[in-house]
Structure formats: structure tokens, C-alpha cells
Amino acid sequence: MDGLGDAAKEYIAGSAAGVAQVVVGHPFDTVKVKLQAHNTTAHGKVYKNAFHCTSRILVEEGIRGLYKGASSSFIGIALESSLFFGTYAQAKQLLQGKSEDFVSEYTGGMIQVTFDDVISRNLQCRMQVQGKDVMYATRYSSPLDCAVKTLQREGVRGIFRGGLATLYREAIGNAVFFCTYEYSRYWMHNYIDSPQFSSNSGLVVAKDIGIGIMSGGLSGMAYFTLQFWTATLPLDVAKTIIQTDHNPQSSRNPFRVLNMVYRRAGLAGCYAGLGPTLARAFPANAAAIVAWEYSAKILGIRRE
Question: How far apart are CA 106 and CA 102, in angstroms?
């Protein structure tokens, strides 16, 4: 890298990755949030499964329903992803050694959490659960309206709702994501690099896109596996419930919320949204990594 210029380029490339991730992954996320918010209440399940939820959204709201809350995501996740990838790249430059990938990604994940809640996730979740569902009447006309009403009712603390649950969820998971990305990318390059690829520009592009898709997709699946086998996905359920609960007196302790969910809906309730999370993992993260790598290449950043 050449100092400040390349550092700024890393943050720009990170923003491109965030936009790509929203375009591909937001519909899956909308279904996941609705399942988490509506299938964990005392009133029983609103949706039979992810397919039922998706079909209800399409019938009642059209394709736009799947992208509800996306405007705040495009802005928030572009900034979040800029910090996420930019901090990772900068920390990786500074930290040399066996643990550099884990430590630099852990650093990026910690910084990401603040913007994750303040800019996008909180408003996004509140927008996603509204609509023609039985339990939630339309409350917000836009992300800005959502932010203003949240501040009026709950103050600044309302904007930060779910921050603790997000912190637990993201810190280690993001480290696993980038470790998987780095090592899978390294081994795939070693395996398929050959004079045939290096002498044909078309094959080079195909190779780079293919490696980006596979390394990004595998990283997303690794993150999902961590979510499934640990308490990470249940904490995501708790985060959604905390952020979409309109009662300011409700508990913000994710473990208390999970205990409540378990009593109401059992273990299945604690893993609500599992299907869309799995379906989203590969395509959304593959799109993000390809966008990040090619934006970096266009901007002239050299990847080792």
C-alpha cells in the first residue's frame, strides 16, 4: 500500500462490497427478521416456514416487500462495510504474525457493531416487521421517520437497542469469516495458478471471479456454521425481538429475552430464521467478496 491514498481506496472498496451484499442478501434477511419477530410470540406462529413467509410478502406487498428497510441498509451497510473491510485491511498491514487475520478481523467486527445498530440494523428491523402482518400495523413511512419516532419515544438509547446482543454475535463470527476467506483464497490460488491462466486475460478474470465466489461463499457458510452450533443465531433472534419491541420498558438483556422465547416457542423459537440464514450465507457473501476484490483491483490496490 502507498499510505493514505490506498487506505482511502480500501474503505471505498468496502462500501461497494456492502452494496452488493444488500442487493443479493436483503430479501433473505427480511424473511429471517419476520420469522424471528412473529414466530416467537405468545400468540403462536404467524408463518409456517420461510416459503410461506416469502409467498405472503410477495402476495401482499410485492417484490418491494422483500426490500423493505433496504434504503437504510444501503446507506448504513455501505458505511458499516467500509469500516469493516477498511479496518481489516489496515489492521492486517499493521499486525504481522500467525494471528493477524483473527486479530484484524476481530478489530473490524468490534468497530462494525456501533454502526451496525446506529445506522442500519435497528431501523432496518423495525421497517421489515411492519406491513400487513396481523400483529404489526404500519408505523413508519421511511427510515428517517422510523429514526425520528424512535428518538421521540425512546431517546438515543432506542437507537442503540440490541447493541449488546449484536456485540456478542459479531465479534467472533467475523473473525471466523475472514480467516476462512484468507485461507480458502490462498489454497485455491495455489491449486489453480498455472501458465495457462497467467497468459490468458479472459481466464484470469474467470479464475478471479470464481475464487471470489467460492472464498466468499465458503466464508459465509463458515459464519453460518458458527451461528448454528453456538448461541450466535439465538442471540440474533434476541436482537431482532429487542429492536422491534415497541415497549420501551421491555428487557434489553438478550439472555432474558432468549429465556422468554424458549418458554414460549421452545428450542425452535430460539433458532427462528434458520432457513433464510442458511440460504443467504453463500450468495450474499460471495457477492460481497467479488465486489470488494474487483473494486480494489479497479482502484489499483494490489492484493498479495
Answer: 6
C-alpha cell at 220: 459465509
Q: How is residue 168 annotated by DSSP?
A: H
Computed from CA positions of residues 10, 77, 270, 55, in that sequence, does the dihedral angle turn out positive or negative? negative
Architecture of the domain spanning 4-298:
Alpha/alpha barrel (1.50)
**Which pLDDT tens digit goes with each residue over 148-164?**
787 777 777 776 676 66
State the CB neighbour count (10 A cutoff) for residue 245: 18
Q: Which is it for the CA torsion 239, 245, 248, 250, positive or negative?
A: negative
Encode pLDDT of 209-253 as tens digits: 888 888 888 888 887 776 665 667 888 888 888 877 777 778 888
> With b meaning 16 or more CB within 10 Å and e meaning fewer, what string describes 35-67?
bbbbbbbeeebbbeebeebbebbeeeeeeebbb
